Amino acid sequence: MVGDANVGLPISSGLVYTIQNLTLTTCDWQIQIQSAIES
Predict the structure, then answer these.
(1) Closest C-alpha among 3, 5, 2, 23 to residue 13
(2) What's the CA gap between 19 and 12, in Å, rounded?
(3) How many whole angstroms separate alpha carbon 13 and alpha carbon 5?
(4) What whole-number distance in Å separates Cα of residue 39 and Cα of residue 25?
(5) Between the CA of residue 4 and those of 7, 9, 13, 33, 38, what are the distances in Å?
(6) Which tens digits make up the pLDDT trace of 1-39?
(7) Distance separating alpha carbons of residues 39 and 28, to the nearest angstrom
(8) What does the H/E/C string look like for 2-39?
(9) Could you tell me which of 9, 12, 31, 8 has the C-alpha nearest to residue 20?
(10) For position 27, what pLDDT does the model report?
(11) What is the pLDDT of residue 22?
(12) In angstroms, how far is CA 23 from the centroid of its own chain?
């Protein structure tokens, strides 16, 4: 049981980290596209 928890935690936190990175990247792209359209 303890081994499963130790393995599961890095995987789930890695998923959260990846999702946050994707979200940030998407926001950056949207800002760049808006800037390009406005200029």
Answers:
(1) 5
(2) 11
(3) 12
(4) 21
(5) 5, 9, 14, 43, 51
(6) 555 666 677 778 888 889 999 999 998 999 999 999 998
(7) 16
(8) HHHHHHHHHHHHHHHHHHHHHHHHHHHHHHHHHHHHHC
(9) 12
(10) 87
(11) 92
(12) 5
> What pLDDT score was predicted for residue 39?
84
Return the pLDDT at 23.
Answer: 92
Residue with tokens 């359209």: 37
Provide the residue type at 3 as one letter. G
Tell me the CA distances in angstroms from 16 to 1, 9, 34, one per residue in order.
Answer: 22, 11, 27
pLDDT at 6: 65
pTM: predicted TM-score of the whole model, two decimal places: 0.53
